[in-house]
């Protein structure tokens, strides 16, 4: 078993020396942590929030090659991204799934001249990517994504078949180009599993969430947690994986830097069955007349809509505000003008700040989504800041940084990660026979409930078997863990107990917003919050006052940061009194936030 939080703190107080200190446990930091741990490097990763709680919890949830990067000639990035996409489909099949994608086009010749201008890095607005330019781009996309390919190549649908496929789509759509990328259903869970895998791989690999950097004297760095447990760390090398907070972390370490120029990406989870049914499992990747790119695809019984691209100087205040919400709803309405859609259908919204490199570009969409390692010397430490990157390429980025660090430490790589399964993707059943064997075994543990076994496999991957066995036991108080929650029948008491005991939970929000996709699925309400808080309190031995504080904190986050309506007494920011968009208007969105953009991933 990995060391507990208490054991980790005791170890650091006894011996604060570590080879590598990683500050920031988003996807870049988590991927690097696992890689270093697999090589046997003593590594500590810390975060002021929970693991994967910043921008890594707020992507468009795509694992994609970056089709749009072709327009700016970033062929190397596309080749790397498509390869990493294909690897993640193999290594994390429990949370990464193929996503059939349709790209509507309105003309044969549109977009050719603006695409040429953008290729040579000249400003140009593309309000129509025509059939010919789309066909050329997708042919190249297929070629660059040929390594480890596991999905079909692109195809095109013309004429009346477009209307048969999507009855409510705009009438001026002439063709649908269909290609395949991938989506990640539970990004936050995969981030935690990388941390967990690292802690299990090497006893010198340690992870602490909810700790704050409080000072540095040039010899040691001091941290403190919420319970007043201060400790020092004496690293040989520091990796700043703080994302949008990189410059602030460097300032706290003792040097002013200007590495980051982040942009905010807002997303919506919308309850609109009419569109969800027509999507039939597909994502639509579409442009609007103001030159922006948006997306919409089915997600946990609703649809996910994204994304904005707005410069942001304070990542702590990044939320998807009402203007962004209205813009995204109007973008959907532009694509489906016959469908009524309004703010009252938004079940959840979120935003994060992409850690893009500092740039003076007028258009945020033109800033490269590639990654880079920037080295500073702060006191006597080499500090490597991980700038840029995205969910799709985290493994490759981690490999690059780990190889650099291993060379500095005089060590050699022992384990490759290219084809190494992550968390619940380990021993995942890939064919009908092995899947049936897994389900039969776990169904027996679940008292013959096959549907329950399927749910556990979908939610946790092969780790679902350990969850099932835990649910089959009795709690310390003698209560049956094999009982569904009163407020949320799709979850069992034992699941909450398991997550609290074995998944480094410190707060109620860790469970509801990250370890489990409860909030993300639009399932948060007061009854759910109260019942799960009570269960967490029993496992984590919270006082009654602490439990009430946790409930209040979750309600505040849900309303302020995610626009969730929790009923009477909540400070509801969802503007439920707004009028829905007309079901007959086909107007384009009123205003944009940039002329072009790439979905966060």
UniProtKB/TrEMBL annotation:
<dbReference type="InterPro" id="IPR006076">
    <property type="entry name" value="FAD-dep_OxRdtase"/>
</dbReference>
<dbReference type="GO" id="GO:0004368">
    <property type="term" value="F:glycerol-3-phosphate dehydrogenase (quinone) activity"/>
</dbReference>
<feature type="domain" description="FAD dependent oxidoreductase">
    <location>
        <begin position="20"/>
        <end position="360"/>
    </location>
</feature>
<keyword id="KW-0285">Flavoprotein</keyword>
<comment type="similarity">
    <text>Belongs to the FAD-dependent glycerol-3-phosphate dehydrogenase family.</text>
</comment>
<dbReference type="GO" id="GO:0046168">
    <property type="term" value="P:glycerol-3-phosphate catabolic process"/>
</dbReference>
<dbReference type="InterPro" id="IPR000447">
    <property type="entry name" value="G3P_DH_FAD-dep"/>
</dbReference>
<dbReference type="Pfam" id="PF16901">
    <property type="entry name" value="DAO_C"/>
</dbReference>
<dbReference type="Pfam" id="PF01266">
    <property type="entry name" value="DAO"/>
</dbReference>
<keyword id="KW-0560">Oxidoreductase</keyword>
<protein>
    <submittedName>
        <fullName>Glycerol-3-phosphate dehydrogenase/oxidase</fullName>
    </submittedName>
</protein>
<feature type="domain" description="Alpha-glycerophosphate oxidase C-terminal">
    <location>
        <begin position="417"/>
        <end position="546"/>
    </location>
</feature>
<keyword id="KW-0274">FAD</keyword>
<feature type="region of interest" description="Disordered">
    <location>
        <begin position="566"/>
        <end position="601"/>
    </location>
</feature>
<feature type="compositionally biased region" description="Polar residues">
    <location>
        <begin position="573"/>
        <end position="601"/>
    </location>
</feature>
<dbReference type="InterPro" id="IPR031656">
    <property type="entry name" value="DAO_C"/>
</dbReference>
<dbReference type="InterPro" id="IPR036188">
    <property type="entry name" value="FAD/NAD-bd_sf"/>
</dbReference>
<dbReference type="InterPro" id="IPR038299">
    <property type="entry name" value="DAO_C_sf"/>
</dbReference>
């Amino acid at each position: 078993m990995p060391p507990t939080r208490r054991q980790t703190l005791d170890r650091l107080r006894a011996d604060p020396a570590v080879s590598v200190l990683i500050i920031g446990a988003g996807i870049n930091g988590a991927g690097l942590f696992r890689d270093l741990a697999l090589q046997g490097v003593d590594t500590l990763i810390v975060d002021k929030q929970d693991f994967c709680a910043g921008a890594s919890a707020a992507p468009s949830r795509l694992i994609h090659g970056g089709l749009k990067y072709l327009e700016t000639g970033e062929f190397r990035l596309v080749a790397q991204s498509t390869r990493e996409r294909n690897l993640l489909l193999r290594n994390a099949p429990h949370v990464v799934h193929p996503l059939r994608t349709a790209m509507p086009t309105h003309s044969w010749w549109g977009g050719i001249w603006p695409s040429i201008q953008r290729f040579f890095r000249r400003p140009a607005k593309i309000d129509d990517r025509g059939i010919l330019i789309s066909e050329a781009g997708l042919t190249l996309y297929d070629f660059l994504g040929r390594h480890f390919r596991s999905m079909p190549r692109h195809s095109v649908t013309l004429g009346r078949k477009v209307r048969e496929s999507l009855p409510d789509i705009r009438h001026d759509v002439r063709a649908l180009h269909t290609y395949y990328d991938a989506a990640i259903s539970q990004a936050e869970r995969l981030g935690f599993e990388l941390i967990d895998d690292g802690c299990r791989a090497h006893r010198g690999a340690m992870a602490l969430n909810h700790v704050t950097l409080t000072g540095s004297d040039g010899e040691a760095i001091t941290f403190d947690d919420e319970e007043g447990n201060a400790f020092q760390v004496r690293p040989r090398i520091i990796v700043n994986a703080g994302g949008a907070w990189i410059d602030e972390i460097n300032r706290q370490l003792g040097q002013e830097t200007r590495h980051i120029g982040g942009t905010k990406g807002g997303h919506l989870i919308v309850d609109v069955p009419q569109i969800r049914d027509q999507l039939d499992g597909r994502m639509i990747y579409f442009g609007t007349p103001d030159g922006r790119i948006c997306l919409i695809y089915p997600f946990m019984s609703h649809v996910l809509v994204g994304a904005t691209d707005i410069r942001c100087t304070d990542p702590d205040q990044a939320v998807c505000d009402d203007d962004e919400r209205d813009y995204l709803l109007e973008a959907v309405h532009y694509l489906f003008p016959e469908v009524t859609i309004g703010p009252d259908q938004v079940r959840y919204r979120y935003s994060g700040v992409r850690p893009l490199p500092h740039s003076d570009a007028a258009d945020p969409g033109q800033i490269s989504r590639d990654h880079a390692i920037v080295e500073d010397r702060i006191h006597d430490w080499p500090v490597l800041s991980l700038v840029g990157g995205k969910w799709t390429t985290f493994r490759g980025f981690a490999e690059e940084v780990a190889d650099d660090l291993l060379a500095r430490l005089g060590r050699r790589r022992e384990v490759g990660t290219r084809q190494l399964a992550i968390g619940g993707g380990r021993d995942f059943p890939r064919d009908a026979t092995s899947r049936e064997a897994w389900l039969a075994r776990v169904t027996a543990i679940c008292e013959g409930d096959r549907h329950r076994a399927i749910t556990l496999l979908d939610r946790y991957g092969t780790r679902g078997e350990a969850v099932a066995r835990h649910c089959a036991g009795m709690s310390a108080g003698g209560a049956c863990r094999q009982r569904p929650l009163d407020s949320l029948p799709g979850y069992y008491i034992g699941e909450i107990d398991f997550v609290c005991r074995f998944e480094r939970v410190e707060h109620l929000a860790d469970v509801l917003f990250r370890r489990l996709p409860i909030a993300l699925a639009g399932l948060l309400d007061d009854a759910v919050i109260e019942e799960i808080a009570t269960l967490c309190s029993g496992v984590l031995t919270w006082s009654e006052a602490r439990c009430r504080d946790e409930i209040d904190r979750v309600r505040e986050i849900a309303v302020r940061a995610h626009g969730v309506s929790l009923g009477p007494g909540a400070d509801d920011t969802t503007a439920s009194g707004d009028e829905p968009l007309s079901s007959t208007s086909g107007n384009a969105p009123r205003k944009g936030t940039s002329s072009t953009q790439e979905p966060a991933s």
